[in-house]
Design brief:
Blueprint: H1 10-30, E1 47-55, E2 59-66, E3 71-75, E4 86-91, E5 94-100, H2 107-112
Antiparallel strand pairs: 1-2, 2-3, 4-5
């Protein structure tokens, strides 16, 4: 049975397939990774800002603040953790680097410069 017999065109079939592929790609991108620990409390929230506190040995932490007033706070328990943030995009399982911030200076290193 051809597409015409089913009441729609080949172009409509292609549109449906492309739509389904895009939906599958989005589901794949948004699926939590199996490696590491996932913090599902953040799902669906809007991020207001991300803050890095880098003052070893006193305090090193990462905060992800949301617009609803909640935050995820990661405090590093060892001293002198080197932090190298990178902004990336995940496509079909591959990571594409958009921006590399380099290794973050500690507060003491910033003062020395």
């Amino acid at each position: 049975m051809s597409s015409k017999d089913k009441g729609h065109t080949r172009e409509e079939d292609i549109d449906v397939l492309e739509n389904e592929w895009e939906c599958q790609e989005t589901r794949s991108r948004n699926r939590p990774p199996t490696l590491g620990l996932n913090f599902t409390e953040a799902v669906g929230k809007v991020i207001a800002f991300v803050n890095v506190i880098n003052d070893p040995p006193n305090w090193q932490a990462l905060e992800i603040r949301f617009t609803d007033g909640t935050l995820l706070h990661f405090e590093f328990m060892t001293t002198e953790v080197r932090i190298k943030p990178q902004y990336m995009e995940a496509r079909r399982g591959d990571l594409e680097l958009i921006r590399n911030y380099g290794v973050l200076l500690t507060d003491k290193e910033k003062i020395a410069h």
